[in-house]
Amino acid sequence: MSQRPVSVIVAVRNGERYLGEALTSLLAQSPPPAEVIVVDDGSTDSSRRLAERFGPPVRVVGQRPAGIGAARNRGIACATGELIAFLDADDLWPAGSLACRRRLFDADPSSELVWGMVRHFWSPELDTTTAARLYCPSGTSPAHLAGGALIARRAFERVGLFAVDLRMGEFIDWVARARELEIREETVPDVVLGRRVHGANHTLQNRGDLKDLTTVLRRTLERRRHAACS
Q: Which of 92, 111, 120, 219 could be disulfide-bonded to 194 (CB atoms 3.0-4.6 Å)?
């Protein structure tokens, strides 16, 4: 059975410090993705130039700063693959990450979303003082994160794209909408995502936007009430 092509979308804004490692981990997959689309969300550092130096199958598209939801949507619009994956610019895919998820799609073409497991890791440059104020979970856990999901394009056609008015929680919002439509999801037991803890993580730097998670919950409850009254 021929494997369906995979497009990986990497949204980045001022992520030059770790972006090279992230892209290298994608290209080291066997077989590699058909394309890696780096969406530069208005970076003022060298992120775009760094990504462009990789050459095919990496390609770079730029936009004015619009947030991670808009950047991922731009990537989906540019993608040609039948399967869509994501990786944050500061995280990594371990060896075999893509293959184990794609095998499940090949075995069961009706699947729409395949998860794996995540392992958190300390970024090597962290000093002990910075590390002491951060939390790095031990062991592995379900990777219910954008970087841990492989998604059939048809799922976006059914569920829609990411919310663009949320600085945090846009993926949680999408998954909630997908589950309301009873998307077919499965999980492989393999570690498919290495999540870097480095002190400048998006959730740490944007604690003021935690209200977005309340917005996600409110929208979910509103949809459920509407469905119950229909």
A: 92
Q: Is 168 helix (H, G, I), strand (E, B) or coil?
A: coil
Which residue range(s) make up the domain with 136? 6-165+180-200
Q: What is the DSSP letter of 92?
A: B
For residue 77, being part of any structural domain is answered with: yes
In the chain, the number of structural domains is 1
**In a 3-state reduction of DSSP, which class is residue 143?**
coil
- Nearest residue to 40 via CA among 14, 80, 12: 12
What are the DSSP E strand ranges found in 95-208? Answer: 113-122, 140-142, 149-152, 185-197
CATH number reported for the structural domain that contains residue 58 in this entry: 3.90.550.10
Give residue-wise pLDDT tens across range 46-105.
Answer: 999 999 999 999 999 999 999 999 999 999 999 999 999 999 999 999 999 999 999 999
Q: Which of 221, 83, 60, 105 is nearest to 156 (CA)?
A: 83
